[in-house]
Design brief:
The structure holds two protein chains of two kinds. Chain A is built from two helices and eleven strands, in the order E-E-E-E-E-E-E-H-E-H-E-E-E. In chain A, the strands form two sheets. In chain A, strands 1, 4, 5, 6, 7, 8, 9 and 11 form an eight-stranded mixed β-sheet that branches. The longest helix of chain A has 17 residues, at 73-89. Chain A has helices spanning 73-89, 111-121; strands at 5-7, 15-16, 25-26, 30-34, 47-50, 53-56, 59-60, 98-105, 128-133, 136-137, 144-151. In chain A, helix 1 (73-89) packs parallel to helix 2. Helices cover 23% and strands 27% of the residues of chain B. Chain B is built from two helices and seven strands. Chain B has helices at 53-70, 91-102, and strands at residues 2-3, 10-13, 27-30, 33-36, 78-85, 108-113, 123-130. Chain B has a seven-stranded mixed β-sheet with strand order 1-2-3-4-7-5-6, covered by helices on one side. In chain B, helix 1 packs parallel to helix 2. The longest helix of chain B is centred in the middle third of the chain and has 18 residues, at 53-70. The radius of gyration of chain B is 14 Å and the shape is globular. The two termini of chain B are 22 Å apart. The mean pLDDT of chain B is 93. The chains are: A alpha+beta, B alpha+beta. Chains A and B meet through strand 4, strand 5, strand 6 and strand 10 of A and strand 5, helix 2 and strand 6 of B.
Chain lengths: 153, 132
């Protein structure tokens, strides 16, 4: 994979929340963390930080070493969450900072297997989660896609 | 546009009266944030949904931009997007439209393929925007 680069698109000045009793800072920064992709490739960033909230693109279970998709739902779930962890670590955020996940599966029959793998990544305080079955994912070999939102704890 | 009774800072954005039938707003603005509902490719002026997936995508972006504008936002504020398309075969048609609108914005994106509530709908796009 290519090295991520950082691009600040909007003004990153911080405003002080003067009207609030607490002297907290209002986080108004927006940061797009983008991989260099071909101009014709899908236009997205793996993660966008906005106002202290980290929005992740949907992640898939492709092994970054073999560049192929893991063969079953258990392994793809594990690889997907490892890939999410990798993206989060690039912005200094951890798995325990994830507050919400949306799980898309091409076959809901794999729900229990998905959960067994998923649980390993969230042994305590698992995030809010929605799981839906879809008829396909953008990558034909993908069995699962997970989109999540994180807020630094 | 109407404000809720409970929170005068919240702005509810409507593009079509039909949205009320589904107990939804086209978008909700709260502070620096704008949450746009899943939006499809109706042409609200002509009152029709075009056949072409590419034209549906084009209209969908126009509708999203109209909703964002009502709330004081623009497409460049988008930080997250979710695309749902009804069939993989439409990807080639809609990608140039997506590229045209988001090629320089690069929001965090997710794309899935799933059935729509109306089989004539070929693409639905949901965005979250932040002004910062």
């Amino acid at each position: 994979m290519m090295k991520p680069f950082f691009m600040t698109l909007l003004g990153a000045s911080l405003l002080i929340g003067c009207t609030q009793s607490q002297a907290d800072q209002k986080d108004t920064a927006v940061r797009f963390v983008a991989e260099k992709t071909a101009p014709s490739g899908p236009p997205f960033s793996p993660v966008v930080e906005a106002g202290g909230v980290y929005y992740l693109a949907g992640h898939l279970g492709r092994n970054p070493k073999t560049l192929s998709y893991e063969p079953n739902i258990a392994a793809q779930t594990t690889q997907t969450l490892k890939n999410i962890g990798q993206t989060l670590s690039s912005v200094g955020v951890g798995m325990s900072d994830i507050v919400r996940c949306q799980v898309f599966m091409t076959d809901i029959a794999g729900f229990s297997e998905m959960n067994r793998s998923y649980r390993q990544f969230f042994p305590t305080n698992p995030p809010a989660r929605t799981t839906v079955e879809v008829s396909g994912l953008a990558a034909p070999d993908a069995l699962i896609e997970i989109e999540c939102t994180a807020v630094r704890n | 546009m109407a404000k809720t009774k409970t929170d005068p800072k919240r702005m509810l954005i409507t593009l079509s009266e039909g949205e009320k039938n589904y107990a939804m707003s086209r978008a909700v603005v709260q502070g620096d944030w704008c949450f746009v509902s899943g939006t499809v490719g109706y042409d609200y002026v002509k009152g029709e949904l075009p056949e072409s997936a590419a034209q549906q995508a084009q209209n969908t972006f126009a509708n999203i931009m109209a909703a964002l504008k009502q709330g004081g936002f623009e497409l460049g504020h988008t930080v997250r997007v979710q695309y749902t398309i009804s069939d993989r075969k439409y990807m080639a048609e809609v990608m140039p439209v997506i590229q045209k609108h988001f090629g320089a914005i690069l929001p965090a994106a997710t794309m899935v393929i799933a059935d729509m509530v109306d089989e004539k709908m070929k693409i639905e796009i949901e965005v979250t925007a932040f002004k910062g």
